[in-house]
């Protein structure tokens, strides 16, 4: 039977972003208009409450896309018409919803630069805007920064574990939706990965694109050696052959016999240490010392570190599911809280969720060797020693300057990781980096809380 309904592609476009928010953001926005509060200036701050077990730091990522989305948010007429049909809004005067058509983000944003190493309790981003606008962008900002930061932080750990061996991001097929592959490829490259298998990430983001072959190529031929020879002939000098479809070491022997020599073999299963050693011996016996060995297959930073420490002759790693899902720690406790309204401090006292009032700045101190020594969270108008991390990136609803290139962000991340104290780079490090609040902030909190 023929149907006239077209498939729905759940892929946000710029004209979709006005409703890329939670319903309660919209009910609060309309409520602010109804209560005469729309003109009040609000300060909201985004931060992470605590790190997952086994994490000692984060790498902030996703800022460029977060800002692009916030500045593109619109409420089109058809979206507003749809909202009128919701039970939450049916009883309201239509003019209240009509007012949403004119809403744009016209506020200011301060943020810590992408690629910076950050810690729990620190303000990562601050929004200063009319209350409805600042409320509207909460959901989008949390979504746009949380996942990329999660993946970049995981990727940084893997980069550290690899000790200079190249890592390649292979996670698009394992991500939680197609868009996750793009975000993960960007975060991985930002944190030191050498390339991605996702072609669209290469086109959009200019990340080096890499790839080998699938087992289906091997299975499509009558014999494994036929598949190898055909691929090597089509891609002379650059072919990487997947050798574990049938018997790994027999596959390596067949790959080693290819003329001219191939670029690499890839092992995607089995006990990688012993297989890589045996493969290296076979390749060397055939005069293929220049053929590299790549390994993949549910690798994480712990497995990578173990292989590297054992001296396994592996020249690079392909990383998929463990990166794109951050399976051992798949979420961050990232939140966005009101801290100031019309100059008056706002706070929260919920157990385990206490917040400090007033807009803030984060200052970072370094030791004489240039290593990070501790961070101070202070009021935004409070001078303090150290490097101020938050900088204004949006003013009056416009970007202050063009975003840095991904290469520059990648370089910043490299330099930031190099400045971390050595003990924080350990894969089992405790999150004990000193982050303290200024005396003035503590005094503000006590005064407002009646202490």
What would a concise description of this structure say?
This protein has 451 residues and is of the alpha/beta class.
Which properties best describe this structure?
451 residues, 18% strand, alpha/beta, 2 domains, 7-stranded antiparallel sheet, nicotinate phosphoribosyltransferase, 16 helices, TIM Barrel
**Mind telling me the C-alpha Rg?**
26 Å
Helix-residue proportion: 25-40%
Q: N- to C-terminal separation?
A: 71 Å
| Total count of domains | 2
User: What name does the CATH topology of the largest domain carry?
Assistant: nicotinate phosphoribosyltransferase
The fraction of residues assigned to DSSP E strands is: 15-25%
Shape: globular
Give the secondary structure arrangement, pairings included:
Layout: H1 23-34, E1 41-48, E2 58-59, H2 63-72, H3 77-84, H4 94-98, E3 108-111, E4 117-118, E5 125-130, H5 131-136, H6 138-162, E6 167-169, H7 178-190, E7 195-196, H8 199-205, H9 215-219, H10 224-234, E8 240-242, H11 248-256, E9 264-267, H12 272-285, E10 292-295, H13 301-309, E11 316-319, H14 321-324, E12 334-341, E13 344-345, E14 360-366, E15 372-379, E16 387-388, E17 391-395, E18 398-399, H15 406-418, E19 435-437, H16 439-448
Parallel strand pairs: 6-7, 6-11, 8-9, 9-10, 10-11, 15-19
Antiparallel strand pairs: 1-5, 1-12, 2-4, 3-5, 3-17, 12-13, 14-15, 14-16, 17-18
């Amino acid at each position: 039977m023929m149907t006239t309904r077209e498939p729905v592609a759940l892929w946000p476009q710029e004209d979709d972003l006005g409703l890329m928010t939670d319903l309660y953001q919209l009910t609060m926005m309309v409520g602010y208009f109804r209560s005469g509060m729309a003109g009040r200036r609000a300060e909201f701050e985004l931060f992470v409450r605590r790190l997952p077990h086994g994490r000692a730091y984060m790498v902030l990522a996703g800022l460029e896309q977060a800002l692009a989305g916030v500045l593109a948010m619109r409420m089109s007429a058809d979206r507003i018409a749809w909202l009128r049909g919701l039970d939450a809004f049916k009883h309201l005067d239509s003019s209240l919803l009509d007012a949403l058509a004119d809403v744009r983000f016209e506020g200011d944003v301060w943020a810590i630069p992408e690629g910076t190493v950050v810690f729990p309790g620190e303000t990562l981003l601050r929004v200063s805007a009319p209350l409805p606008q600042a409320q509207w962008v909460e959901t989008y900002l949390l979504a746009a920064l949380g996942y990329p930061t999660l993946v970049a932080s995981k990727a940084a750990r893997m980069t550290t574990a690899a000790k200079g061996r190249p890592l390649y991001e292979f996670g698009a097929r394992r991500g939680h939706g197609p868009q996750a592959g793009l975000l993960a490829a960007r975060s991985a490259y930002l944190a030191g990965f050498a390339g991605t298998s996702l072609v669209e990430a290469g086109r959009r983001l200019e990340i080096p694109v890499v790839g080998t072959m699938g087992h289906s190529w091997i299975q499509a031929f009558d014999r494994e050696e036929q598949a190898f020879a055909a691929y090597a002939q089509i891609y002379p000098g650059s072919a990487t052959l997947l050798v574990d479809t049938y018997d790994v070491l027999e596959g390596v022997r067949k790959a080693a016999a290819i003329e001219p020599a191939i670029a690499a073999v890839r092992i995607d299963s089995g006990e990688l240490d012993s297989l890589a050693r045996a493969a290296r011996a076979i390749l060397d016996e055939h005069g293929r010392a220049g053929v590299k060995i790549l390994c993949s297959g549910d690798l994480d930073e712990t497995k990578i570190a173990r292989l590297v420490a054992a001296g396994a002759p592996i020249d690079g790693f392909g990383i998929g599911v463990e990166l794109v899902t951050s399976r051992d720690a798949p979420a961050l406790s990232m939140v966005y809280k009101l801290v100031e309204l019309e100059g008056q401090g706002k706070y929260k006292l919920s157990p385990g969720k206490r917040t400090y009032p007033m807009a803030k700045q984060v200052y970072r101190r370094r030791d004489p060797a240039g290593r990070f020594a501790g961070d101070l969270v202070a009021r935004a108008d409070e001078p303090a020693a150290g490097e101020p991390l938050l900088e204004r990136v949006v003013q009056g609803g416009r970007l202050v300057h063009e975003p840095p290139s991904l290469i520059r962000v990648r370089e910043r991340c490299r330099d930031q990781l190099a400045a971390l104290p050595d003990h924080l780079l350990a894969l089992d490090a405790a999150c004990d980096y000193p982050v303290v609040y200024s005396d003035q902030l503590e005094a503000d909190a006590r005064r407002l809380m009646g202490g």
